[in-house]
Amino acid sequence: MASTQEAAGNKSSEVSDEPTPAKQPRLDQPTASQESTAMQQHDFKKFRLVEILDNSQRAKYVALLGKFDTTDGISSSSSSSSQDGKNGEDSKSSSTSAILLLEKEAFPVEQLQQSQLGLSLFDHRQTVETVMHNDIWHKYRLPLESSFCLAKATLVHPATDRLAAKYRRRPCHLVVESPEDYRKRTEPALKSAGAKHSLAWVGNLLDGSAEADRLVFDDPDPAVGFVLHADLKWDGRRIDDLYCLAVCRVDGLHSLRQLGAQHLPLLENLMDKGRKALRDRYGVPLSQQRVFLHYQPSFYHLHAHFTHVSADWPGQQAERAHLVTEIINNIRLMPDYYQKATLTFPVKEGEPLYDAYKDQLDLL
Fold first, then answer.
1. Residue 88 pLDDT level (bands cut at 50, 70, 90)
2. Where does the UniProt annotation place the signal sequence (predicted)?
3. What value does the mean pLDDT of the chain take?
4. What pLDDT sits at residue 363?
5. Each residue of 138-163: b (16+ CB within 10 Å) or e?
6. Is the separation of the CB atoms in 21 and 281 below 8 Å?
7. Measured distance CA(52)–CA(63) in Å, rounded
8. Do 307 and 324 contact (CB within 8 A), yes or no?
9. Domain extent listing, the chain
C-alpha cells in the first residue's frame, strides 16, 4: 500500500487548491456505486456463529465472530469476480473468520406516523406477554411488525484474531500514564506488539478510492487538510445521531501525545472547515457539534470524531475523549503540554497496553 502521505499527494494533484464540500446523496438511499455492487453482497444465510464477542443490552448491540460456509462468503450470484481478484479476495478458504456487528435500528418515524392512519405497529399473529403490573404501570413484551425489527449490520471479512480481540468484551481498567510511562511502557508495548492494524483503508479514504458516497468534505492541503466522511456507525437518517470521521492528510502523526504548537493550524482547520461543512451539509449549528480525539486511538493515524451534542455514542467518555477546543487551548497555554501531561486512558485485559501496565493496576 502506498503511504498515506503519497495518497494525499495523489489526491492533491486531482483537485483544485480550494477545498470544497463534497456532493453527497442521502446515506439511507442507494447510490449508483452501491447499486452496481449489490450482486457482490455476502450471503448471510451461510454465516455460521463461532462466538458471541459482546452483547450490550443498553446499546441493543451484539458482536459476533463467525465463518461463512462458502469459499469467500460472497453470494454465488456475483458477476464481479474480476474486481474480487484485483483485491486478492477471490480464493478465501471456508476457515476465514468474519466479525458481524448488529445494532437495532431506531424506530422509523415515517412509519410510526403512518400508524396514525390505522396501520398497525404490532404483529397480531404473535402472543403478547405480560411482564409486570403495578397500579397504573404495565409492562409487556410486544411483537412488532417486521419493518420495526431491522438491524444495522457491519461485516469485517476477513477478520484477524486481533480484530476479534478488539470487539470481545473483557474487563476494562484505567491507566494513568505519565510522560515517563509513555516513553518506557506505552511506546515499546505498541511497537513490540505491532499494535497498529492495517491502515490500507485509511489510504483508500484519502485517495478517494473507497466510501466516496459517504464523503462530506475534502481539503487536499497536505499539511492541514483532511477528508471528512459520515462514519459507518451512522445511518445518515437522524441528525441528532450524527457521527462523522475526519482523517488528516499529514503522515507520521499517530496520537495526542505528539501534538504541539506546530500543529495548531491543523487543529484549527479541522474545527473551522469541518464544522462548517457539517453545518452546510446537515444544518447542524456549530454549537451543537462535538469534536474530539481519542486517547488511546483505535488506529494510529491522526483523526478526529464529529458527533451531535445530543448523540450518545460509545467512546465519548471523559477518560477517552479529548475535545479539540480544549486541546487547542492547552497547547496555546503550553506548547509542549501533551509531552508533559499525565493522561488517563482505558485498557481491556489482554491488550498489549494492559500487559505493559499490569503491575500498576489494582487487580483485587
1. very low
2. none
3. 81
4. 66
5. eeeeebeeeebeeeeeebbbbbeeeb
6. yes
7. 6
8. no
9. 4-30+170-360, 43-108+121-154
Q: Give the cell for residue 177.
A: 500514564
How buried is 252 (Cβ within 10 angstroms: 0-12 exposed, 13-18 middle, 19+ buried)? exposed
- What residues have CB less than 8 Å from 272, skipping those under 6 apart? none
Which of 192, 197, 346 lies closest to 354, judged by CA?
346
Residues 6+ apart with CB under 8 A from 321: 292, 293, 294, 305, 315
DSSP, res 270? I
Per-residue model confidence (pLDDT) at position 10: 39
* Contacting residues for 125 by C-beta, under 8 A, at least 6 apart: 143
Burial class (CB in 10 A: 0-12, 13-18, 19+), 96: middle
pLDDT at position 14 over 80: no
3-class state of residue 218 by DSSP:
strand
43-108+121-154: what fold?
Phosphorylase Kinase; domain 1 (3.30.200)
4 to 7, 13, 85, 253: CA distances (angstroms): 5, 14, 24, 11
- Asked about 42 being catalytic, the answer comes back as no
Most confident of 57-71, 116-130, 168-182: 168-182
Per-residue burial over 177-207, b = 16 or more CB atoms within 10 Å of its CB, e = otherwise: beeebbeebbeebbeeeebeeebeebbebbb
3-state helix, strand, coil in the chain (%, to 5): 35, 25, 40
Average pLDDT over residues 112-134: 75
Fold held by 4-30+170-360? HIT family, subunit A (3.30.428)
Q: Is the per-residue pLDDT at 149 higher than 90?
A: no
Least confident range from 20-29, 101-110, 202-211: namely 20-29
pLDDT at 240 over 80: yes
Model-wide pTM > 0.85: no
Q: Roughly how many angstroms between the first and final C-alpha of the chain, as a whole number? A: 45
* CA 102, chain centre distance (Å): 14
